[in-house]
Design brief:
Elements: H1 8-143, H2 147-163
């Protein structure tokens, strides 16, 4: 059992060595180690703050992107509505022009028909008058072919003239 139980001298020298090493470490190594740990703690805290700021900025940018996207959608809808309105207006104007043009063409055609009808009526009247004169001429020639009929007709005209 002597081997397992340490002696008083061993405990003394071990304790003395430990205290000396502890004092040396405290004097030369403890401050740099604690400084490095503090520096590391600060850099971790700064990194966490930077990450939190970045997270907040990302959230802000996300909100701004959502807002811009919504504005773009509303602008697109407005442009589509405006384009639809313009297209409807153009179609209506084209319809109105077509109606006006068709009315003008119809009026022109009606005028041409009236003119042609009047010309045809004039031509028919002229032909009727010519035919009437030709018939009258032939009848008069036939009636006036003998001399006694001519004399009777002349006397009849003279009597009519005297009465008027």
């Amino acid at each position: 059992m002597d081997l397992v139980t340490p002696g008083v001298g061993l405990i003394f020298w071990t304790a003395l060595t430990f205290i000396i090493v502890l004092l040396i470490l405290r004097r030369f190594a403890w401050k740099p180690i604690l400084g490095a740990l503090d520096e590391r703690e600060k850099s971790i805290a700064e990194s966490l703050e930077a990450a939190e700021k970045a997270k907040q900025e990302m959230a802000t940018l996300n909100l701004e992107n959502q807002k811009l996207l919504q504005e773009a959608k509303s602008e697109r809808e407005k442009i589509l509505r405006d384009a639809k309105t313009v297209a409807e207006r153009l179609v209506n104007e084209a319809k109105e022009r077509a109606i006006e043009e068709s009315n003008r063409i119809i009026a022109s055609a009606q005028e041409a028909i009236r003119n042609e009808k009047q010309a045809a009526m004039t031509e028919v009247r002229n032909q009727v008058a010519h035919l009437s004169l030709t018939i009258a001429e032939k009848l008069l020639r036939n009636e006036l072919s003998n001399k006694s009929t001519q004399i009777d007709l002349a006397k009849s005209f003279m009597n009519e003239i005297k009465e008027n």
